[in-house]
Amino acid sequence: MRSIVVVAVTFWVSLASALPAFAQFGSRTQNSRFKESVFRNLDRVFKPKLVVSRGASGPVNAMGVSADEHYLVTAVGDKTIRIWDLWLGREIARLSGGAAAVSHVAMVPGQNRFLTIGGDSSLVVWDVANLANPLKLGAALVPASDVVFLNDGATVAVGGVDGSVTLWSIPERRILANWTAHGVGNVRLAISSAGGQLTSAGADGAVRTWDAVGGKLIAEKQFETAVTALAVHESGSVAVGGADGSVTVLDRNQANPRRVEMHEGAVTALSFAPSGEHLISGGQDGGIFMLRDGKATRMGKHDKAVTGVQSGQGEAFSLSVSADGTTRLWNLKTGAEMLLMISTTQGWAVVDAKGRYDGNEAALSGIDWQAEDAVANIEDFAETHYQAALLPRTLKGEGDLAEARTIVDGVAYPPTVSLVPNVTAPVDGKVTVEVTAEDNSGGGVSEIRLYRNGKLVSAGKAQSRDGGQQRRVERYELDVGNGKTVITATALNKERLESRPQTVTVSGGSPDKPGRIHLLTVGVNAYQDKSLNLFYAKPDAVAIDGFFDQSRQVVAPMARRLALLDEQATQHGIVQAIRSLRDVPHEDLIVIYLAGHGVSVEDRWFFISHDANLSDTPPQGLLSSDEMKAEIEALNADRVLLLIDTCHSGTLVDPIKDYRGMKSLRLLARTVGTHVIAATDRTQSAIELQRLGHGIFTYALLAGLAGKADHLLDGAVSATELVRYVEESVPALAREYADDEQYPTGFSRGMDFAISNSSKN
């Protein structure tokens, strides 16, 4: 599939800045051989660019931002409309734009509604709170070139490629007026909130002001070049972008023009700041400029033509969209690029200038850092560069983002890894594996990770270790049974950059014996601290236990069911229950379900046990994600599914910070090689509803297990299918039953596996 380069700028690490890292080494070793090695290592610094290698969704054709800056709507080249929740920091909806890509987006003033114009000229009004029932107005008379709402929000003006302007009534779903405003060519439109006058500009070089009700001409001014972009400030000032790359600003009387040469090629988008103190422009050349006091400052550049710009209400940032497939966030105080926002066919991602990132797993799997001689997936930087809720934290100017090296400036390559089994077929169900990690770029070797069928083999099971920071060898004896076993190894350098995995497959002479299911359910309604009591955590745990106990849809026999409810669900009791599963055979499946309170403190997530005492310093009775990671890593089973249905207590931290623990859960899944579905994300409390008899997360989970998650329609529900179903269905259920928001988050790494059958037959 064609790759889309989204960050094309790379920087070389200077020799002067790199040499100190080798100073101590050089003082001990003076011979030329080692000097040559040092300079060879310097030449091999990884200097990549960011590329969407899979799932590129095409250009971003248009955008709109709600007045409260809660929602961003983008029209994408794959014929979809994407809705971003800027407060939450993620894409929350993907809508079909019709048979052809949507060309224009306009927000209804003061509302969370927006209008789109499709490539088939269809006009559709959408409500963020009710996306399932859009209002279809009809088709534009000619292909549209621009669209703006009049100040009443009930009337929309559409410019046509034939030079016309058409007014539509939204409530009446009909055309109110149509007139020829310009000669043949694209018409650009802008509305002034002062007086409700409509301004148009055309390929004929004319800028005209109209009575927005009757279409009566009020004023006009002629330019020597075709007008390709237009903006009007509420004060009446007008900005005109020309096909020659110039921008001219006029006062409210369309007088006193100030002309500035800005772009190479046509100006494609203009936006005044609310104060009118500065103007943002985008061009066919991809450039983004800020014009202040008659002086133009170039802030940065897209890789292709800019299709839209908009300044934020607080004038701290602006947004731009481009044919290069990206949305970019710019800091108006410093002029620097803050964030890159990417929609792919599989989801969304956000990346900042240092390479810190957030996104859904399906999208991130197709985004790589590429250099001429190496490729690293963006998730290979998870330990140092993943930042939950990166977008809202950046918008709010929070200073709590983890420090990280700027990837495009150059980082050390990860180690090279080799993986050698002693035999190609197991002997007595066992095989010995030797993993070698070598440093060829000065990044060192800090850790080797070995996975059996996608699940991490505990480092404590290594039979031997040799070597040091430059070369390390570890040997393992693995129980692999008689069937097919996939063995994978990776290694991390000192900067925690993970290598590309190396994989071998060991096959026995006969299939493995069927696995069994081991279930641990934890549900806490009644806490020692009664102020924490819940209604549905215990019934939800009982329902999950009941599905695996009574349903004929489970894919394997039940080996054991452990249930810890209320006073049984102490921190010690939960840890001991997980430890009791350590010796489960590798071919078996372990499902762990937790329901109760959860909370994030900085980047760590905690499950609040029955015996929690939050008044202690530090609080007691909290099971941390670090403890959970260690316990799950120690499990012998290759297939582990962790289901977390929790809401924050509102006691330990400000709930607005509750998103941060998502990082520890993500790293748990990624490091250990398991599947995690967490009920809450950032500020959402898990929603409990009497109408459903369950929390919304568990309601969706049970429906998915019963068959609704069978996306492939192959008769089975797998772990990755369940993750996808819960992520997609919970937000819709929250809106339908609670008029609220809840966005669960799934993390998957490792072997996919069936959990239930989608039919009882």
Automatic annotation (TrEMBL):
The keyword Transmembrane does not apply. One of its GO terms (biological process) is proteolysis. Residues 520-745 form the Peptidase C14 caspase domain. It comes from the Bacteria. Residues 1-23 form the signal peptide. The keyword Signal applies. WD repeats lie at residues 53-86, 95-128, 179-220, 260-288, 299-340. Pfam families: Peptidase_C14, WD40. InterPro entries: Ig-like_fold (IPR013783), Pept_C14_caspase (IPR011600), WD40/YVTN_repeat-like_dom_sf (IPR015943), WD40_repeat_CS (IPR019775), WD40_repeat_dom_sf (IPR036322), WD40_rpt (IPR001680). SMART domains: WD40. One of its GO terms (molecular function) is cysteine-type endopeptidase activity. Keywords: Repeat, Signal, WD repeat. This is G-protein beta WD-40 repeat.
